[in-house]
Amino acid sequence: MADAADLRETTSSRARRWLRRTGTLLAAAPVLAGVLQVPAAPAVHAAAKPTGSRSVDVDITSLTPTAPTKSDTLTVSGTVTNDSSSTVSGAHVGLRVGPTMEGRNAIDSAARRTGYQQGADGNEIGGKYTEKIGKLGAGASRDFTLSIPVNELHLGENGVYQLGVSLTGQSRSRPWQQVLGIERTFLPWQSSSPAKKTQLTYLWPLISTPHVTSRTDADEDRTPIFRDDRLKAELAPGGRLQQMVSLGKNLPITWVIDPDLLATVDAMTREYEVQNRHGDGTTTGRGQTVAKRWLNDLQKAVEGHQVVALPFSDPDIASLAHHGKNVPGALSHLRDATELASTTVQTVLGVKPRTDFAWPADGAVDSSIVDVATSAGAHNVIARSDSLRETGNLSYTPTAARQIGGGNTAVVADARLSTAFTGDMSKADNSTLAIQRFLAQSQMINLQSPDRQRSIVVAPQRIPTTSQAQAMAAALDGVSGEWTQLMNLGEAAKAKPDPNATQRVPSTRLYPGSLRRQELPTRAFENVYKTQSTLNRFEKILTAKYRVVTPFGNAIRREMSTSWRGNGLGATHFRDGVQRYLEGLTKKVRLIPKTDMTLSGRSATIPVTVQNNLVQGVRLRLVLKSQQKNRLAVSEPQVVNVEGGHSQSVKFGTTANANGPVWVSAQLVTEDGQSYGDEMLFEVNVTEITSTVILVIAGGVLLLVLAGIRIYLQRKRAATANGGDEDAQEDGADGADEATDAESDGSDPATALVPEQPSDPAPDTGSQSAGASGAGEKVDH
């Protein structure tokens, strides 16, 4: 209708007749389609070219100043592109000032509207304030810049004015002047200060994804090993985090920081390693310089500002509430992360942060989320107004603070302002429109009830891109003007709540399904429990526990990070990697396998060897048990201390009561009696000296004596036959010599036939052997 109204002002009678014929044909088209039942053409062709007031795409890439005063000159720049299939001629670009907006919903409606609408889009400010374009071929683009003194806009009372930039021209198919394209934005106008300014709190998040693994190098400094070196680019000049600090230092904002990011960057200031793509090797990290510069800049930037520290590694509170709270130990990780947050921020930045704020993903809350958040000591929960919705039909936006019971406060961020910069802000037209819309919405809050001062909180996306951060900063520069008064988050939480505002927390069933699908599943928290249980057993045997507990404790907290939302596969790989590596370390302390052995006699010793392939010492007990104690008794368990990279052989005394094979088990246990590692079984064959053996030995001795006597008598008779005492004496001397020789040799004729008793088996390795302890990577703790 708006297009037709324009046509009546500019067309000839022939054009009007053409329009009527066209309308008649269009009206008849549905009837013909119904009668003929012509099948629709397959949707394989390109979309039809835009026509009418959508023929030309108008982009506004710059508008300054964003909130002008009477003495300013408004400058609007942009680009026009002919999206139609025909050439546009006689074209010019002009500025149109529309009416003031009547409310926040009116701003949203105007922003969504496309195409020109006469009356609603205002009149063009013509003359010298337009820019001629001339011809614009199909697909062609042209830049423009309009500069107009603000007093020429003829703005009236304070308010949000619709501002349009339109291209007017004609085409071959429509040879009359008409609006062929328009882009709308908003211009906040505040010629005088309001009775009471809106108190505005803007959160400035410094949050990243986990970058550090659970591994450290085996050196004394426990050099950390990073998953990647991408954080270096974010800290470098022009990088995302560098821009966040550079922009934030000059803004009236509240810093919201994940302490894990600080700990990670602090580790980068020293030597660190980066694992390769396959995870089987490392390279030296190169981010020391940018890390030092960034931390130094951040320390200066936070001076005089409030710092809110999230729990370490920003755990996903909603996932904990919906899937993890019933898994043993899950909630304890949230409490530990909260306690670690304060220590980390104070150590790295030298400031004491607030740790009593919880920030669920996207500010979406329900009763279970509030219960979990407050259980860790966070008495203030940052929610969002599209989650904790107003139900009282208020005509204004209420103060953010709400008392939700139990001494807890919900700080409800404004959804429109918080999501203003979530799109692609790398395009100048997108960022320009977002900034002006943000300013318009913030001013409209003040205009809703200028005599009622309210406190408004803005909680943007957790990890803004560089372009998003730049747009946020530009908006804050413009909003900190006539209608706002900036305050920190702590002050916003203490603001007097509006008694008419909603205080009822939504039930769990109202939690958005789109967010629920991004949560960590129950199995993720079960894996966390498994890893923590393994770590608890492992640390009990270590002599330098801090080398293991700290890196693995932080890794477990990183497994629960909110940043894993939308990256379930990455979260699974990270968790599995932590568990695999920890299990690999625990297996570096083990029993050396034994083969079956034989014990002779009623008492003997059994050696068992403990190998420690860690770089630190371990202390635990070794228990040896006989499966048949009535046949073989084993001595009491023994405490074993094994230095890093060594093996220790431990001997157990045994007492045999019967012959035959007996199964014996060896088991390492912690000092509190928990089994460590797998049980080792081996067979011991017991042999005992019996009476039959003794009789055999005695018979052998008797035979030897008789043989000696016979030899003696034979020689005696031979000597007599030779007739000489002298010879007999010589023979006697020879016999005495033989006896003397036998004695000097130490041989005993009586024992020469008894088999040699086997000695105790040699130990598998020497005690505290410094030799190689087998293949395997040294523990980097």
Automatic annotation (TrEMBL):
Pfam families, A to Z: DUF6049
Database matches in InterPro entries: DUF6049, Ig-like_fold, TonB_box_CS
Biased amino acid composition, Acidic residues: 724-746
Origin superkingdom: Bacteria
Coiled-coil blocks: none
Alphabetical GO biological process terms: carbohydrate metabolic process
Chain segments carrying region Disordered: 720-781
Membrane-spanning segments: 693-713
Compositional bias annotation for Low complexity: 766-781
Keywords per UniProt: Membrane, Transmembrane, Transmembrane helix
Protein name, UniProt field: Uncharacterized protein
